[in-house]
Design a protein that fits this description.
Helices cover about 45% and strands about 15% of the residues. The chain has about 900 residues and is α/β, with parallel strands linked by helices. Among the domains are: about 210 residues, Rossmann fold (3-Layer(aba) Sandwich), CATH 3.40.50.300; about 150 residues, Rossmann fold (3-Layer(aba) Sandwich), CATH 3.40.50.300; about 60 residues, no CATH class; about 140 residues, no CATH class.
Length: about 900
């Protein structure tokens, strides 16, 4: 098909050593040259980017025009550097002026682009929104003839895509005619839906994936050496066997990418490999851009043999030397697995090779299902974001800025052209306009609306639909060290006092939560703990979980793997059978009662189980009068509830799910957190305001029933829950297609154990109390305090606790009446001297005098032990007296100090 292209392009193809087109290029080039809009779907490394821009360059060279003729829109602010270099190379050689513009582009370059626009502009969805309302840039956009949207599958499902979809319709109003649209996508399901998202009459051009990919699934078998490795990396033998196998694979290949599903797991795994002296880097979204760029460079130059990464490297890296991708734990989704594996063998004619290293029976079975579906090209459906009202609000203000004033009818017609807003009613648009009118972001009359003085500021402040999230610092009260931070989303969804979370690879119990800080203590148990990475976890879809259930039911593996992996994948099912217990599957829900815990085995995926779990929790709460603890994964719903009520939960009418959840969700921190972000995007709450700064309950009440409130529910229903498939499950129970069975057991069944211990992944062994006490002791002994003589009130000394001797005396007068001061030392010394001089003191000042005297009396009685007690956080003389009185030896003293510090952490908001 290269013969259809301009001679200059053909010459450059020969220069690059490209003799014939790839399959996607052969499909795309003639269609794009004909002027057809197209969606190109092909695996990574098949030249689909060139398939999009080469025919566009050909058409542009045939008929050059002024201003920006080609828009290249990418979801990545830092466009894949190799890809950018390729496009810039082609542009330079063909004398097509190509430039990049995004949020970090300097004012100087923006000014240059306004004076002399490029012929092809590479930008992001957010920056397109910014230039749409610029007076000068609008003039340059009048000549746009081609819009290429890269990684369109990344945008189609979220609000960034909804914003882009309307942005392209506003661009069409500037151009005054339709432009040619070309989408570039990795392999996806729902191709026709994504084509409609891109625009009208978009042709789907698709290339098969399976022949390009080699996938295997392994559960490494522990070996003798794993015992030594376990001691070296502070892990279990089972976990060390996986680290050892990854190490073997790294050393068999020249360049390996290791994908994990969360940032925290990437840190844990990379740290274990580094202990074993492996040449490994780490790459995730919480690292700075400079660090990420440097790591990519070192990996590309093969200074690093392997890179442990999250989805931050699914897109945007093109390194031909990668010859293996390891997926650590189930990738959860077929499309994600293929996107990740596609990073290897990234050259024409080379197969992409991927190995999934699995951890337990659930993980192995799920990975095998996903691998099989990947090779059969059975992809997950893409769910297009449906008419988000907050995006609509922003775009209505955008239209007002585009035109100054516009009729409602014209605005409605423009909006309805977008596939995302095809089902928007006129009434819904009017409701959003009325809200914007009340907030003075627009003026609205009967048949038209227009901009106000607040419109532009609001518009620019809300270019991004990605929520700005604050961080909460997590502090270990034992050592007083900051051990990291948690995202606002995780705190809003899961964090409460008394809850145990897994963080930095270890279990921690939450003692208190303030506006900026969460105080924790090490926990000695992980059962029931919530991992801090669950907020990041990719949800296992309904279809995958159901197929896992089907394989359970048939007790068969339909994917080639070694005998040990097969044995592990079926091990819990076989143990369940040996105990004569029902095997939960796609056709059987097992309700297992163990004490006051109900484990509902439901093979329906994370979001369906989250939906049913929240529904059941709400129903039980209303029945019992207190809240119910809930834990959910893709195969289980775990409730702390009396057995008598559990089975009847499934009798609920599927049609009442939505109204019931609408009522119960508004009382949750999850709803409040989502509401905050939606309200920010509407302009109802400033972007600077945080979750802790406002009385959200009052604000929610004020906006109840408005578009903000409705959009919050819509967002929860689409991004956190799966109402549609939850209804299907309840309906199938009603139709007797799914059976319910209940059993009462003394201990959890083998399959239940997986859910209760699913997060022991590479966690340090349980810490004995002596290790916790040792950390406390180290911290206290290294703390500095001041000793002050109350007898002469002239001498003091500043020492670390460990350097204080029980026999220490005042060097001025020889007295042992020494007070231990650990705050406001100079102020307290001055106060005591005033007291000694007979000055009259206030009631509060006399309290301080008494505290110093009590402290000195304790030193007289207990010597150094009193200094140790008083060095504890939040421990004053009265508490120290109790702690010392209840301690028979030094170990018990430290144990009592820890108890007192915990109590202070819980109650400090009343004292600080």
């Amino acid at each position: 098909m290269f013969h259809l292209l301009n001679e200059d392009i053909r010459k450059l193809l020969r220069e690059r050593g490209i003799a014939s087109p790839t399959e996607i290029q052969a499909l795309a080039i003639p269609e794009i040259i004909k002027g057809n809009s197209a969606l190109l779907i092909a695996p990574t490394g098949t030249g689909k980017t060139e398939a999009a821009f080469l025919p566009v360059f050909h058409k542009f060279l045939e008929e050059r025009s002024e201003g920006i003729a080609i828009l290249y829109i990418t979801p990545l602010r830092a466009l894949n550097r190799d890809l950018l270099e390729r496009i810039l190379w082609w542009g330079e050689k063909l004398k097509i002026k190509v430039e990049v513009r995004h949020g970090d582009t300097s004012k100087h370059i923006r000014r240059k682009q306004a004076l002399a626009p490029p012929e092809m502009l590479i930008t992001t969805p957010e920056t397109l929104q910014a230039i749409l309302i610029g007076k000068v840039m609008r003039r340059h956009l009048k000549n746009v003839r081609f819009v290429i949207v890269d990684e369109v599958h990344e945008l189609a499902e979220d609000k960034r895509g909804a914003q882009l979809s309307l942005g392209l319709e506003r661009l069409r109003e500037i151009v005054k005619q339709e432009f040619q649209r070309v989408g570039i996508s990795a392999t996806i399901g729902s191709a026709n839906k994504v084509a409609k998202f891109l625009g009208n009459n978009v042709k789907v051009l698709k290339v098969s994936t399976s022949k390009e990919v080699e996938i295997s699934v392994e559960k490494p078998k522990p070996k003798k050496i794993d015992k030594e490795i376990a001691q070296e990396i502070h892990s279990s033998i089972d976990a060390s066997s996986r680290v050892r196998r990854i190490r073997e694979l790294i050393n068999k290949h020249s360049s390996t990418l290791i994908f994990v599903n969360t940032r925290e797991l990437s840190e844990i795994l990379a740290s274990r490999l580094k202990i074993l002296n492996e040449s490994v880097g780490i790459h995730h979204s919480s690292l700075s851009q400079e660090v990420r760029v440097e790591t990519e460079k070192e990996f590309k130059e093969q200074k690093l043999k392997a890179l442990v990464c999250t989805s931050s490297l699914e897109l945007g890296i093109d390194i031909g030397s990668i010859n293996l991708v390891i997926q650590y734990k189930s990738p959860r989704q077929v499309t994600r697995l293929l996107q990740r594996i596609g990073r290897s063998g990234h050259r024409l004619g080379k197969k992409s090779k991927g190995i999934i290293i699995t951890t337990d029976a659930d993980d192995a079975l799920e990975s095998l299902v996903i691998a099989r579906r990947a090779l059969k090209e059975k992809f997950e459906d893409i769910e297009i974001e449906e008419k988000p009202y907050d995006v609509l609000a922003h775009q209505l203000v955008g239209l007002a800025l585009d035109f100054g004033r516009i009729t409602k009818e014209r605005a409605y017609n423009i909006i309805k052209r977008s596939y995302v807003f095809r089902n928007l009613t006129y009434k819904e648009m009017e409701d959003v306009l009325e809200l914007l009118n009340q907030m003075r972001l627009l003026w609205v009359e009967q048949d038209r609306f227009g901009k106000t003085k607040n419109s532009r500021k609001y518009y620019y402040e809300n270019l991004s639909t990605i929520p700005d999230e604050r961080k909460y610092f997590v502090k270990n009260i034992v050592t007083q060290e900051n051990i990291g931070s948690l995202d606002e989303a995780f705190v809003a969804n899961y964090v409460e006092e008394g809850v145990t979370i897994i963080f930095k690879g270890s279990p921690w119990r939450i003692l208190s939560i303030s506006e900026k800080e969460i105080l924790v203590e090490p926990s000695r148990t992980i059962e029931g703990a919530i991992p801090s990475w669950v907020g990041e976890e990719i949800p296992t879809p309904y279809e995958i979980a159901r197929e896992v259930g089907k394989w359970r039911r048939k007790e068969k593996i339909y994917f080639p793997c070694d005998d040990y992996t097969k044995k592990i994948a079926l091990s819990k099912i076989r143990r369940q059978k040996q105990k004569n217990l029902p095997i939960p599957s796609d056709k059987l829900i097992l309700i297992e009662i163990v004490g006051n815990i109900a484990i509902i085995h439901s093979c329906f995926g994370l979001r369906v189980n989250q939906t049913l779990g929240r529904l059941f929790s709400a129903l039980l709460t209303s029945k019992l009068g207190h809240s119910i603890a809930l834990q959910v994964d893709a195969y289980r719903i775990i409730l702390h509830a009396p057995k008598i009520y559990v089975k009847e939960l499934f009798d609920i009418d599927p049609e009442v799910i939505e109204p019931l959840l609408s009522v119960s969700l508004k009382r949750t921190s999850l709803f409040r957190w989502k509401f905050l972000h939606v309200a920010r995007r509407f302009g109802a709450i400033s972007r600077e305001v945080s979750y802790a700064d406002v009385n959200l309950k009052r604000i929610i009440k004020a906006y109840e029933g408005t578009a903000i409130y409705k959009e919050t529910l819509k967002e929860l229903f689409s991004s956190v829950l799966d109402i549609k498939n939850a209804k299907k499950v309840l309906q199938r129970i009603k139709n007797k297609e799914i059976e319910l069975k209940m059993v009462e057991l003394k201990e959890p069944s083998p399959i239940a154990e997986l859910g209760l211990k699913a997060y022991s992944e590479i966690i340090l062994p349980e810490r004995a109390e002596r290790i916790i006490l040792k950390s406390l002791k180290d911290r206290i002994l290294n703390k500095r305090v001041e000793l002050f003589c109350l007898y002469c009130a002239k001498w003091s000394c500043y020492l670390k606790v460990k350097n204080i001797d029980s026999d220490i005396k005042c060097e001025n007068c020889g007295a042992k009446m020494l007070a231990i001061l650990k705050r406001d030392e100079n102020k307290l010394k001055k106060l005591y001297r005033r007291y000694k001089n007979g000055e009259r003191l206030s009631k509060e000042e006399m309290k301080e005098i008494k505290a110093m005297q009590t402290s000195a009396n304790l030193f007289l009685s207990y010597g150094k032990l009193s200094v140790i007690a008083l060095a504890g956080r939040g421990i004053g003389p009265e508490v120290a007296k109790r702690v010392l009185g209840n301690s028979r030896d030094e170990e018990e003293l430290y144990r009592n100090i820890l108890k007192a510090e915990r109590e202070y952490a819980r109650t400090r908001q009343f004292w600080d």
